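Severity: low
Component: inverse-folding endpoint
Summary: output formatting inconsistent between runs
Steps to reproduce: submit the following structure tokens with default settings.
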């Protein structure tokens, strides 16, 4: 049970006890000779018939119920309090016995304004003014200044509480929306990470298995090498998945356990095993790349190289990594060898690349090259504010 639920429960208990206390006070005021009555001030309670006493006792029960249920059923409480007050206007003791009825009426009016809807506010105003107006008419008084003063003193704070509750409800709804958006975003990040890990490894494994099958009868040595490559890539995928699970479970990943552009050789090996060639050019100091940009750059290269291996097996792929002051620039281009081609902007992988780049406020372009082949260009700025969100989940999303 949350702290809010506990407070709400205790608030309900306190209000119920207030209703019971009001009822008990009314009984004492009605049945116990108070100082004023002993001195002869007020009505002669002893002269009241048993019928009047029964009526007044029923009215006391109504007042107690109105107070006890004023926050849960504000309109009903206001109606009950107003009806009891109006009925009591015609009893012999109202002018000298106003405390309990007035308290019940004030509590019900305050609750209607504070926690009820618009209809409850209308009921509260009518339920307050009408009984008091009738009471004034019956008693022959015209104390409307006092009535309006008390009414404003009740409605003003009630309206303030109403506004505060409405603001709190809006904040709770906004927090719930943000939490739902955060969960959705986190699911997308995990999905993107799983795609990057599994897609790269499985693509290389499929290509190697197909190569092994093609030369199984003619070149057993080459087939064995391809199957060894499948086994090695499979181990790497399992290791990556275990590392991801550790991070998702909340454990702190060691820096050496995170993907890094310094391990680019592991990525290019997959394309090389698939029969292609990778030429890597590094400009600048990779050690100066912030952790978030380093992991994201690794994942972006992983996806681009996976696409090259999948869509252009046997192609020559050029990879350029440039650390230029305040930004990381990546360029992956293949020469288009191989029959299968792809269109720019399609596939989950390119979507994942764009999402990663957006975290940094960077730029990305992907599409066919004029001279043939396909290329991906990415710029990731090292801006602290832009990469703060990525850094918080660097182990998962880069």
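Observed output (run 2 of 3):
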């Amino acid at each position: 049970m949350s702290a809010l639920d506990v407070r709400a429960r205790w608030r309900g208990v306190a209000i119920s006890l207030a209703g019971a206390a009001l009822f008990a006070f009314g009984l004492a005021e009605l049945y116990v000779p108070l100082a004023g009555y002993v001195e002869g001030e007020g009505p002669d309670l002893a002269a009241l018939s048993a019928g009047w006493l029964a009526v007044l006792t029923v009215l006391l029960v109504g007042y107690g119920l109105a107070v006890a249920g004023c926050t849960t059923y504000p309109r009903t409480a206001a109606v009950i309090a107003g009806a009891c007050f109006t009925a009591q206007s015609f009893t012999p003791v109202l002018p000298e016995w106003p405390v309990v009825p007035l308290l019940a009426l004030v509590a019900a009016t305050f609750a209607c304004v504070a926690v009820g809807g618009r209809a409850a506010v209308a009921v509260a105003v009518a339920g307050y003014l009408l009984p008091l107006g009738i009471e004034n008419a019956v008693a022959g008084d015209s104390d409307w200044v006092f009535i309006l003063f008390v009414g404003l003193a009740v409605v003003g704070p009630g309206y303030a509480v109403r506004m505060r509750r409405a603001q709190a409800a809006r904040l709770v709804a906004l927090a719930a929306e943000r939490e739902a958006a955060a969960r959705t975003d986190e699911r997308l990040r995990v999905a993107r990470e799983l795609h990057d890990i599994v897609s790269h490894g499985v693509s290389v494994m499929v290509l190697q298995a197909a190569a092994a099958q093609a030369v199984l009868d003619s070149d057993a040595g080459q087939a064995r090498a391809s199957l060894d490559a499948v086994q090695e890539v499979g181990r790497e995928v399992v290791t990556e998945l275990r590392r991801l699970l550790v991070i998702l479970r909340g454990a702190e990943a060691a820096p050496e356990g995170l993907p890094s552009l310094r391990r680019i050789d592991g990525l290019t090996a997959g394309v090389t095993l698939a029969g292609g060639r990778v030429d890597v050019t590094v400009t600048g100091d990779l050690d100066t790349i912030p952790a978030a940009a380093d992991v994201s750059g690794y994942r972006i290269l992983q996806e681009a190289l996976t696409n090259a291996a999948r869509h252009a097996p046997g192609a020559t792929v050029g990879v350029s990594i440039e650390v230029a002051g305040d930004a990381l620039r990546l360029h992956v281009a293949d020469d288009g060898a191989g029959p299968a081609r792809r269109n720019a902007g399609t596939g989950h992988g390119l979507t994942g690349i764009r999402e990663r780049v957006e975290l940094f406020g960077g730029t990305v372009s992907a599409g066919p090259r004029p001279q043939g082949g396909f290329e991906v260009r990415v710029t990731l700025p090292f801006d602290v504010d832009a990469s703060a969100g990525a850094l918080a989940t660097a182990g998962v999303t880069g």
